[in-house]
Amino acid sequence: MVLFPNAKINIGLNVTEKRNDGFHNIESIFYPVFELYDVLEIVKCEELKFTSTGIEIPGSKKDNLCLKAYQLLKQDFNISPVHIYLLKVIPIGAGLGGGSADAAFTLKGLNDLFDLKLTDEQLISYAQKLGSDCAFFIKNKPVFAFNKGDEFKDIELDLLTFEIKIEYPNIHIGTAEAYAGIHPKEPVKNIKSLIAVAPIENWKETIKNDFEESIFPNHPEIKELKEKMYKNGAVYASMTGSGSAVYGVFERSE
Ligand SMILES: C[C@](O)(CO)[C@H](O)COP(=O)(O)OP(=O)(O)OC[C@H]1O[C@@H](n2ccc(N)nc2=O)[C@H](O)[C@@H]1O
Ligand SMILES: Nc1ncnc2c1ncn2[C@@H]1O[C@H](COP(=O)(O)OP(=O)(O)OP(=O)(O)O)[C@@H](O)[C@H]1O
């Protein structure tokens, strides 16, 4: 079975408060980007194996989110060993949710391969145990995310008439260190309501990613990348998640 775990971008991101469990509550729009994806193959085999090619993944193999997803389901279901092959394409430490997508797609893949008949809601609950971004990739549709960024409300947002260009400045930003640099605050206006009323041309003035304020001073090249997107004609540009990748939303040239 071959799957294509895709990237996500955050359109606006407010870190609203620090929680008692050490995590933060956030509000953000998550939008799937299907043009940027890893390739994941899962096949039944004699013993559990994980092989990755493409971009090198920091950390040890056993900590890979694909294997963690397998182990999580293995606790509850009598599934046989698999060989998981991952071609890593989505930049890491980029705020594009690549590792989380791999984990969520592994859950979905194992559900199909072993005919576990788990519903999306059950898969979401497994995904939430693997990481805050993981749950989004189960349904993989535009949503307003809240709480830890792992609970969602569906939204109507269609950017198909636009082209989304993503650039990775080759800077790895760890999610935990990025959150540590944030001073949480309640937003004046909620992103969901801003997106609902404002046309995309107005987002530049209203839709902000709180991580930019703490990341840009330490990494001016990321700010420059965002400015370059606007110079090149983007209607909206932003850093995604906790960085470091930047995206621009452009009118499609026919
Ligand atoms: C920045 C975003 O990408 C926005 O979508 C996500 O909030 C990050 O989600 P993620 O990479 O799945 O993060 P996790 O693996 O759950 O957590 C990594 C670390 O980031 C911090 N973290 C993460 C999510 C959150 N809502 N509050 C946090 O404070 C915690 O220190 C945590 O130990
Ligand atoms: N399949 C995987 N792909 C990428 N990273 C993985 C994977 N499995 C485990 N990891 C670990 O996760 C870390 C990357 O997570 P991190 O949150 O810093 O960056 P990210 O890819 O931008 O994700 P996010 O958008 O969720 O913040 C890597 O350093 C690596 O150790």
From TrEMBL:
Active-site residues, record numbering mapped to chain: 8, 133
Positions contributing to ATP binding: 91-101
Residue spans crossing the bilayer: none
One GO MF term: ATP binding
Example GO biological process: terpenoid biosynthetic process
Source domain of life: Bacteria
Domain GHMP kinase N-terminal intervals: 64-138
SUPFAM superfamilies: GHMP Kinase, C-terminal domain, Ribosomal protein S5 domain 2-like
Keywords on record: ATP-binding, Isoprene biosynthesis, Kinase, Nucleotide-binding, Transferase
Keyword Cell membrane: no
Catalytic activity, as annotated: 4-CDP-2-C-methyl-D-erythritol + ATP = 4-CDP-2-C-methyl-D-erythritol 2-phosphate + ADP + H(+)
Pathway: Isoprenoid biosynthesis; isopentenyl diphosphate biosynthesis via DXP pathway; isopentenyl diphosphate from 1-deoxy-D-xylulose 5-phosphate: step 3/6
Annotated Pfam families: GHMP_kinases_C (PF08544), GHMP_kinases_N (PF00288)
EC number(s) on file: 2.7.1.148
InterPro entries: GHMP_kinase_C_dom, GHMP_kinase_C_sf, GHMP_kinase_N_dom, IspE, Ribosomal_Su5_D2-typ_SF, Ribsml_uS5_D2-typ_fold_subgr
Residues in GHMP kinase C-terminal domain copies: 204-252
Family designation: Belongs to the GHMP kinase family. IspE subfamily.
PANTHER family from the UniProt entry: 4-DIPHOSPHOCYTIDYL-2-C-METHYL-D-ERYTHRITOL KINASE, CHLOROPLASTIC
Protein task: Catalyzes the phosphorylation of the position 2 hydroxy group of 4-diphosphocytidyl-2C-methyl-D-erythritol.
Entry protein name: 4-diphosphocytidyl-2-C-methyl-D-erythritol kinase
Originating species: Vicingus serpentipes
